[in-house]
């Protein structure tokens, strides 16, 4: 053959490679993120996987989402893991015997037959359902895909907007770092520092059988993850009683994007979507109101129970508040006055890629979208300049580490979302550049879980499903 570079041929082999990964990770009813490290079904993984799978097999993409939504709890939550009963318990930690969903989750309406975790992950699902429908509307209608999915998605959003509005400002809070999906992001360092870790000997990490310890979260992180999850379980997964609550810009942006998708699904089913679009616009305004930092030019997380300080003063969260008794009256009324001016808790001054992802929102004010593009392209994230792909965390941040999971490496799902956001806001040249970098890096890295943001060097698991799926989506 010829040694001349043939883009068509390389595109063909990229397509083939991605399809091979997804076929290898398919179990018959859903797709595992990776065979070794993550041998069950994960919630936001499945949404991204379905978005790519629709180009290979619309039927499998529908099935992927049906399996996940089939494990929904009666209170509306979609669990972050649906366990495969044929996988040994010690293959992944925490396993079903830790979460005990069918007993500890009974009051919250956990399913009886299938075992799940009790926490959630980012709500990418309505967006995925809508995109999967669009790939083959005929098949979708023949299988009543949308009529079956719609009530479940509506209940899911209801759960997040009502039970999870722990900050009282209309946004959803996550109650565990695993819920936001960027497990060891430096954003959680401050809120997690208040959590007493579970003793190291009370659990065994299975992830270290597959991943390099220097690339994974630390044992101290795990101690705190286990403590938070144990307390949530022991409280029968009732919301509002925990120690950790964070309003995250990516989680909420995905909820809002999904609310817009739900509006389209409603319209397709013959109902009016206007109320949902209007709600999505109100939520966009709440996101800006509570999480936008104009001086920094990006969104930050809000630590709902954090002590207020500096420019983001709030009422202190009501936890562990102390104060001289004599001045109690005075501090109470000043707290009330502050509460009127600014929301509860404190912004977390760490720059995470999560703070750029509201770029996917159509109702984002123009000036904010333009500022976000500038921040993404600047020294902290290096889009189109210093980096190949946008890192998960601030290149100049003290905690930056190009190989440690969500503390610096670049991930394909967040870059795929940014690519969409750039295109949505008319930044076609930047979007094209990011798309090309995503495709090159995915192929060269063997569809790695995540990569060094500068070099594209593969990290974590290879043959990772959402990397392959989102590659397919970009190719179409
Ligand atoms: C905990 C499956 C999941 C992703 C998360 C990623 C990682 C799990 C873990 O893997 O989290 O949920 O064991 O580290 O952080 O985003 O959904 O791919």
From TrEMBL:
InterPro entries: 6-hairpin_glycosidase_sf, 6hp_glycosidase-like_sf, Glycoside_hydrolase_63, MGH1-like_GH. Pfam families: MGH1-like_GH. The keyword Cell membrane does not apply. Keywords: Glycosidase, Hydrolase. Signal peptide: none annotated. Residues 308-318 have a biased composition (Basic and acidic residues). This is Mannosylglycerate hydrolase MGH1-like glycoside hydrolase domain-containing protein.
């Amino acid at each position: 053959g010829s040694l001349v570079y043939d883009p068509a041929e390389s595109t063909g082999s990229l397509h083939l490679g991605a399809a091979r990964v997804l076929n290898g990770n398919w179990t018959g009813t859903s797709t595992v993120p990776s065979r070794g490290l993550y041998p069950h079904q994960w919630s936001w993984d499945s949404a991204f996987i379905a978005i790519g799978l629709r180009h290979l097999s619309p039927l499998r993409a529908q099935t992927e989402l049906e399996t996940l939504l089939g494990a929904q709890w009666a209170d509306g939550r979609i669990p972050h893991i649906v366990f495969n009963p044929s996988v040994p318990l010690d293959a992944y930690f925490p396993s079903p015997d830790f979460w005990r969903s069918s007993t500890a989750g009974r009051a919250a309406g956990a399913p009886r037959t299938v075992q799940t975790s009790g926490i959630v992950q980012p709500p990418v699902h309505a967006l995925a359902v809508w995109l999967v429908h669009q790939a083959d509307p005929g098949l979708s209608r023949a299988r009543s895909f949308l009529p079956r999915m719609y009530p479940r998605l509506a209940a899911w959003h209801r759960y997040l907007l009502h039970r999870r509005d722990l900050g009282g400002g209309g946004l959803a809070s996550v109650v565990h770092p695993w819920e936001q999906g960027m497990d060891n992001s430096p954003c959680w360092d401050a809120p997690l520092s208040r959590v007493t870790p579970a003793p190291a000997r009370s659990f065994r990490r299975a992830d270290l059988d597959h991943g390099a310890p220097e690339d994974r979260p630390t044992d101290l992180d795990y101690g705190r993850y286990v403590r938070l999850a144990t307390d949530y379980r022991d409280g029968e997964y009732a919301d509002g009683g925990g120690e950790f609550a964070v309003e995250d810009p990516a989680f909420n942006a995905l909820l809002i994007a999904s609310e817009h998708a739900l509006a389209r699904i409603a319209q397709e089913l013959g109902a009016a979507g206007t109320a949902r679009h209007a709600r999505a616009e109100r939520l966009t305004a709440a996101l800006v109101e509570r999480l936008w930092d104009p001086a920094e030019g990006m969104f930050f997380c809000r630590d709902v129970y954090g002590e207020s300080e500096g420019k983001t003063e709030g009422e202190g969260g009501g936890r562990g508040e102390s104060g001289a008794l004599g001045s109690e009256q005075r501090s109470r009324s000043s707290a009330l006055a502050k509460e009127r001016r600014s929301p509860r808790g404190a912004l977390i001054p760490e720059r995470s890629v999560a703070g750029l992802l509201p770029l996917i929102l159509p109702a984002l004010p123009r000036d904010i979208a333009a500022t976000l593009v500038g921040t993404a392209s600047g020294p902290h994230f290096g889009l189109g300049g210093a980096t190949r792909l946008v890192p998960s965390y601030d290149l100049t941040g003290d905690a930056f580490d190009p190989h440690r999971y969500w503390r610096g490496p670049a991930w394909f799902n967040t870059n795929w979302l940014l690519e969409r956001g750039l295109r949505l806001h008319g930044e076609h040249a930047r979007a094209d550049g990011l798309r090309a970098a995503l495709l090159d890096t995915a192929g060269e890295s063997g569809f790695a879980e995540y990569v060094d943001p500068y070099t594209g060097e593969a990290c974590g698991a290879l043959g990772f499903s959402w990397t392959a799926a989102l590659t397919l989506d970009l190719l179409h």
